[in-house]
Design brief:
731 residues; Spore Coat Polysaccharide Biosynthesis Protein SpsA, Chain A; 3 domains; alpha+beta; eight-stranded mixed β-sheet; 40 strands; EC 1.14.11.4; binds 2-acetamido-2-deoxy-beta-D-glucopyranose; Collagen_mod_GT25
Length: 731
């Protein structure tokens, strides 16, 4: 060993001896008992207890079931806490080797266990160590009386957390009487600022947040970090990783957001660990043992694709005998849709209740009524769903129940948009603000259960939470019912989780829903492209685009594809028949720029019914890829087409069309109804190849070159009415 090493060993040994003699003996082998006060077991408390259990901490909870007399936690008050401690702590006064740590619970989460806590307490050299913060409260005038600290340190006492030897803690709590509504922080502050007491009890403040981190006014100095499969909070200002994280003051939403990650709730390597805890298993239940659910459906405004909405409600995989349905319909426009749902399903459910538009029941009242009705009938869950929600996964309801949370919603978005059904954060006036992790959540980059300040449109609420939420939609009459509800839930500390562990559905966009047509959804391709596709595009459409697709060619260079659904064909024909202004089939056609049609048909142009833009979009999105597949090398995006029209053939009107060439690069021809059923005869013959297609398939499209090669004629329709949709693409 060199001289230098001896010196280091010597100095180190001396220092250790000196420190231990001067300060406290190490407490790392002491017992640690965590004390907290909670008058009710709300979700904040459960979150706290989860973290305590996770780190194997012994917790003593005082005050459960006691009526709280300490005032609003956000303002002065809290003397009641000290009085509860006075009543309960005396038996611990003379316990040697016992360290007591008091923390609040509703807004506290722990991130480490006994060993780390005692080690840091021991290092502090104090007999009692209080949490600290940057603001002096509730009496600012006392600020100057505090000992000075370094710029990076916290100077003022916070009573939300302290740790100390049992004797000192009990004496301190017992020191003076305090009224329940007096301020506990002021009580401890005065003790700390009393030099004699401070010295006798050896009280210090945790100025570097070694153990206690108060988040009020400190959000900017903390980060969530990960180490292996553990998460922790790091304070960049003090360079410490505090253990007791306290969401004191008005920053609760931000605290709860961080708490999603803390105590290993979510980690970068393991993902959502808290998602796997306390699950409710429905899979082994017999139908009769399933929990009862009141499904409340809210139709508050005109909503596209409501037919699918109701189908999806009916399609939930859950025993219908255990479901009551309540429908609040505020729109005359949708009365027929509600009626249709009832006709089909009313008898399947245990009970169905409808409030129709003429009752003029407001949304707020209807939503509050659903809460009370669920309570009145002792239902196990209230599941409320708004008409803009498309629940595409039938397992949604059971998946949400399984997670066992007070209030839970699936993540729902407008496809392709940033708009969703939750808020990650609140602005200062309680409106929407984007949280740091909002994008990661809506883009499914982080999967989990996220306690958020606002959710809407689809909520599953556990029945035992309903009493706390009675009247919640009327809690704040100055804001919308959903905002009012969420404010109430936050005030009652009922957590609202958004679940993005899977994809369960999406939101339709109802704001610019044009309801002036017979089949309004046909026109809605821009606002709701996904729903449009599901209703109108043939289920086999995409097969033709696969690499090894075999595409039918019934005549030379005439390709045949499934493209639209039967529903499309039916609605399309009905829309044009409803419009009704069929052309005469004469050569003179005032709709054309030249006023003359060489080969006239009885038809209606797409622009006459206002579908032209939608149709061009359809050509670009659905037809062009097929064209590139079969006529490779020709590329024209977007496709142009001036002539887009529906043709009607019938024996007594126009039964056929003489041979002609189309003024197009290529032509598409979609059959809109069925040969042999809706009409007899018909079909198309390509003259040059003497090749006829006489059995068109409804919803299928021909594509063939125009102009030079594909001289063709429409064959005679001998009975019924035949409809086809034609576009001359790239004229
Ligand atoms: C559901 O969660 C609560 C705590 O929030 C827990 O007490 C209960 O045991 C859980 N249920 C199941 C079936 O795990
Ligand atoms: C065209 O085909 C039909 C039968 O498919 C045949 O009867 C007819 O003779 C053919 N016409 C010519 C000009 O080849």
């Amino acid at each position: 060993m060199g001289v230098l090493h001896i010196w280091i060993a010597l100095v180190f040994g001396l220092c250790l001896g000196f420190c231990v003699a001067e300060e406290e003996a190490s407490t790392t082998d002491h017992e640690l008992l965590l004390l907290t006060i909670a008058t009710e077991e709300n979700d904040g408390f459960r979150q706290f207890m989860r973290s305590a259990k996770k780190y194997d901490l012994d917790v003593k909870v005082f005050g459960l079931g006691v009526e709280w007399r300490g005032g609003n936690m956000e303002s002065v008050g809290g003397g009641h806490k000290i009085n509860i401690l006075k009543e309960n702590l005396r038996p611990y006064r003379n316990k040697k080797n016992l360290i007591l740590m008091f923390v609040d619970s509703y807004d506290v989460i722990l991130t480490a266990g006994k060993e780390a806590i005692l080690e840091r307490f021991s290092k502090s050299g104090a007999r009692v160590l209080f949490a600290a913060e940057d603001t002096c409260w509730p009496d600012r005038s006392l600020a100057d009386k505090y000992p000075a600290v370094k710029a990076s340190e916290k100077r003022y006492l916070n009573s939300g957390g302290f740790i100390g030897h049992a004797a000192e803690v009990v004496d301190m709590v017992d020191y003076q009487p305090i009224a329940d509504d007096e301020d506990d922080q002021l009580y401890y502050t005065k003790i700390f600022l009393n030099r004699v007491l401070r010295h006798d009890w050896n009280i210090k403040l945790d100025t570097r947040a070694e153990i206690f981190q108060n988040l009020n006014h400190a959000l900017g100095e903390v980060l969530i970090k990960y180490k292996g499969d553990h998460s922790y909070m790091y304070n960049v200002k003090t360079g410490t990783a505090p253990i007791v994280i306290h969401g004191n003051g008005p920053i609760k939403p931000e605290f709860f957001r961080m708490a999603n990650y803390l105590a290993d709730g979510w980690t970068s390597t393991e993902g959502c660990q808290s998602c796997k805890e306390d699950l409710i298993d429905l899979t082994s239940l017999k139908e009769a043992d399933y929990p009862t659910v009141l499904i409340a459906l809210f139709v508050e405004y005109r909503t596209p694709f409501i037919r699918e909405f109701f189908q999806r409600v009916a399609g939930l995989s859950y025993p219908r005998s255990k479901i009551q349905i309540y429908i609040h319909n505020a729109e005359d426009f949708h009365t027929k849709d509600v009626k249709k749902f009832l006709e089909e399903y009313e008898d399947h459910y245990s009970r169905v209740i409808v409030t129709s538009p003429e009752k003029r029941v407001s949304e707020r009242v209807a939503r509050d009524w659903a809460v009370e009705e669920c309570m009145r009938t002792n239902c196990n869950y209230l599941f409320s769903v708004d008409s803009i929600v498309q629940m595409t996964e039938p397992s949604l309801l059971t998946d949400l129940i399984t997670q066992n949370r007070s209030i839970i919603a699936p993540l729902l978005k407008r496809p392709g948009k940033l708009w969703s059904n939750f808020w990650g954060a609140l602005s200062h006036d309680n409106f929407y603000a984007r949280s740091e992790d909002y994008m990661d959540i809506i883009e499914y980059k982080k999967l989990g259960l996220w306690n958020v300040p606002h959710i809407s449109h689809t909520l599953l609420i556990q029945g035992h939470k309903l009493p706390a939420l009675k009247g919640a939609h009327s809690f704040n009459l100055n804001v919308d019912a959903d905002m009012s509800f969420c404010q109430a839930a936050r005030a009652k500390m009922v957590f609202m989780y958004v679940n993005n562990q899977a994809y369960w559905g999406h939101l339709v966009y109802a704001d610019h829903y044009d309801t002036s047509h017979l089949n309004n959804e046909l026109f809605d391709i821009f606002n709701n492209p996904l729903d449009w596709k599901e209703r109108y595009i043939h289920k086999d459409y995409a097969k033709a685009l696969e690499d090894d697709a075999e595409i039918e060619m019934p005549c030379p260079d005439v390709y045949w594809f499934p493209i639209v659904t039967d529903t499309f064909c039916d609605e399309f024909v009905a829309e044009f028949e409803n419009y009704g202004q069929w052309s005469s089939g004469k050569n003179n056609d005032p709709r054309l720029s030249g006023g003359y049609e060489n080969v006239p048909t009885v038809d209606i142009h797409m622009n006459q019914v206002g579908l032209e833009q939608q149709w061009l979009h359809f050509l670009a999105v659905y037809v062009r890829p097929l064209q590139e597949k079969v006529f490779a090398g020709y590329y024209h995006d977007p496709p142009q087409a001036i002539m887009n029209f529906i043709v009607r053939y019938k024996p007594e009107e126009q039964p056929l069309l003489r041979p002609h060439n189309d003024a197009s690069t290529y032509t598409i021809n979609i059959a809109l109804n069925r040969p042999g059923i809706d009409f007899e005869g018909g079909g198309c013959r390509f003259v040059r190849y003497n090749c006829s297609i006489t059995s068109p398939r409804k919803g299928w499209m021909f594509m063939h070159p125009g102009r030079l090669t594909h001289h063709h004629e429409g064959l005679r329709t001998t009975a019924g009415t035949r409809y086809i949709m034609i576009s001359f693409v790239d004229p």
